[in-house]
Write a structure and sequence with these properties.
- The structure holds two protein chains of two kinds.
- Chain A is of the alpha/beta class.
- In chain A, the strands form three sheets. Chain A has a six-stranded mixed β-sheet with strand order 8-9-10-3-11-12, with helices on both faces. Chain A has a four-stranded antiparallel β-sheet with strand order 2-1-4-5, with helices on one face.
- The mean pLDDT of chain A is 92.
- Helix content of chain A is 38%, strand content 27%.
- Chain A contains nine helices and twelve strands.
- Chain B is mainly α.
- Helices cover 70% and strands 3% of the residues of chain B.
- Chain B has twelve helices and two strands.
- In chain B, strands 1-2 form a two-stranded antiparallel ribbon.
- The radius of gyration of chain B is 27 Å and the shape is flat.
- The two termini of chain B are 48 Å apart.
- The mean pLDDT of chain B is 89.
- Classes of the chains: A alpha/beta, B mainly alpha.
- Chains A and B meet through helix 2, strand 8, helix 3 and helix 5 of A and helix 8 and helix 9 of B.
């Protein structure tokens, strides 16, 4: 589903990604661990075309991100083409980023109606089902500010799912939540993983990575330091850097 | 520990609120001053309230009110629509588009509005013909600018285009006040820049844009009186014509002041409800409107 080969990204003088190689297969749950500033979020944003890749190849579902290859030249994609590719990838943010001027249901049906052209009736029916699925049935007409952080994040997940994405990206989805609200969001994500969704999850939730993750990578300073099955990496890390990080968070 | 009591009966003791004797004194002083002013207004026969009453609904004054309202509404419409467009252009990644917007704002804020009004009105003296066609080639449509630039169009162009430059900066401030994460979330859902702006950013920016726009509208209501310079008659010019004839200067100024204050008060109400509409979702619960409060009191 996602193949990265030597992906590099630079912000001014700082090279944030220094050659990332990674493969995520269909239906796999990939957890990304690492200290802040290690480039995890930037990598996730590159997959969703929110950042432009400077060098290397990043392929999502068989298509190059941000460029189109014709002959042996790469052509930069136009804005509309990028937008239609983004529509196929769901993203959940650390700070939820729900639209505060719309109700929970309004948030969910916005993109299906205005991007995909789904009829309002169909979109709202599906929106209600999705709210039910994330455990918020009956909260259609509530505005985001009237919901708790955990509830907001669940609406955000439902909003991403409404576009029927083939890949879901989670950028530290529980980091802005009160500890007691983390569980409800992780439960929804666990359900999603069981249903066969391909997911890349940047997280600090070691427990979630161990239980739900099919694969785990540990990133630091723009490179992948170590990768493998979660249980193996978490219980028997090979690299000194990984050991040092895990000793602090476990 | 004298003067304190045990905790067990502290909850039952009467509470003495802080006294504010200063407030009573200032209120009394102001009341006396207001009474003096009221007395002067009522008893001073030179103010000629009878003349005010006579002209308040005089047909030429009411007509002037209509022209003022018309100018204010059309000029503000031009100003707001063009201003928002200019603000969006100014924030465009396209350097030519944002450059044009910058140039527009720079020019229209850089010259006095009175100069712009006169400029538009006298434009036909330097532009002898207007035509639509291929540059340097044949033209399909041809007209004399004197028929296009009337006093009204010159007034609208002068006031509206100038207002747009100020509204552009107000709108830009509003757009910049919306969290970056909103744009990101909209883009992640596959929305285009245009959709993001229209559906996500602008509705949220309206909360910040509205109060200064109310300011601008009220200011425009009074700026319209500048059109006397190009001979267009609105409320102030109408009053000037009347007192030029009757010498009842103060009574007529009082008459139009009553109208200006009345219109401004109506605008306040409009702004209140508009702000309320765009505040949806921003607070957990909106406070009741004055009408709802009254209904609530009656129902009780």
């Amino acid at each position: 589903m996602v193949q990265a080969e030597g992906v590099r990204k630079r912000f001014g003088l700082v090279e944030v990604l220094r050659g990332i190689d990674l493969v995520v297969t269909r239906g796999e749950v990939m957890c990304v661990l690492g200290p802040s500033g290690s480039g995890k979020s930037t990598f996730l944003r590159c997959i969703n075309h929110l950042e432009k890749v400077d060098a290397g190849r990043l392929v999502v579902d068989g298509e190059l991100v941000g460029y189109e290859q014709r002959g042996n030249r790469l052509y930069e994609l136009r804005e509309g083409e990028v937008a239609s590719k983004r529509a196929e990838i769901g993203m959940v943010f650390q700070r939820f980023n729900l639209f505060p001027h719309m109700t929970a249901l309004g948030n969910i049906v916005e993109a299906p109606i205005h991007v995909k052209g789904t009829s309002r009736a169909v979109a709202e029916k599906r929106g209600r089902e999705l709210l039910e699925r994330v455990g918020l049935g009956g909260r259609e007409h509530t505005y985001p500010r009237q919901l708790s952080g955990g509830q907001q994040q669940r609406v955000a997940i439902a909003r991403a799912l409404a576009m029927d994405p083939k890949l879901m990206l989670f950028d530290e989805p529980t980091s802005a939540l009160d500890p007691e609200l983390v569980g409800e969001v992780l439960d929804v994500m666990r359900d999603l993983a069981t249903s066969g969704m391909t997911m890349i999850v940047v997280t600090h939730e070691i427990g979630f990575a161990r239980e739900v993750g099919d694969a785990l990578v540990f990133m630091d300073e723009g490179v992948i330091v170590e990768s493998g099955p979660p249980k193996q990496v978490l219980t028997n890390p090979q690299q000194e850097r990984t050991k040092a990080f895990l000793s602090k968070v476990l | 520990m004298t003067g304190t009591t045990g905790e067990e009966n502290a909850a039952e003791l009467p509470v003495v609120p802080v006294r504010h004797p200063g407030r009573w004194v200032t209120a009394a002083v102001l009341l006396v001053l207001a009474a003096m002013l009221g007395h002067w207004l009522v008893t001073n026969s030179a103010l000629r309230w009878d003349v005010v009453g006579q002209y308040l609904f005089d047909s030429s004054i009411v007509h002037g009110v209509g022209r003022t309202l018309e100018l204010t509404a059309v000029a503000m419409l031009v100003g707001v629509v063009l201003g928002i467009l200019l603000a969006v252009m100014r924030l465009s990644p396209n350097p030519i588009v944002s450059g044009i917007s910058w140039l527009y704002i720079w020019f229209f804020r850089g010259t006095p509005v009175l100069v712009q009004l006169l400029f538009w009105y006298f434009l036909p003296t330097v532009v002898r013909s207007l035509s639509l066609g291929v540059p340097f080639g044949p033209s399909w449509f041809h007209t004399d600018p004197k028929t296009v630039i009337t006093q009204f169009t010159a007034a609208i162009l002068g006031l509206g285009l100038n207002e747009a430059a100020y509204m552009a900066e107000i709108a830009r401030a509003g757009i910049l006040s919306v969290d970056e994460g909103q744009t990101e979330a909209a883009q992640a859902l596959g929305m285009t820049r245009r959709q993001t702006m229209q559906r996500i950013v602008l509705p949220q920016a309206m909360r910040v844009i509205l109060p200064p726009t109310g300011n601008e509208t009220i200011s425009m209501l009074k700026t319209t009186s500048l059109v006397f310079a190009i001979g267009f008659s609105e409320l102030l010019t109408t009053a000037q014509i009347i007192y030029g004839r009757t010498f009842q200067t103060i009574p007529l100024l009082l008459t139009i002041s009553i109208w200006y204050v009345a219109i401004t008060s109506v605008l306040y109400v409009g702004q209140y409800y508009l702000e309320r509409y765009f505040a949806r979702g921003s607070a957990r619960d909106l406070p009741p409107t004055p009408a709802q409060r009254i209904r609530g009191l009656v129902a009780r």
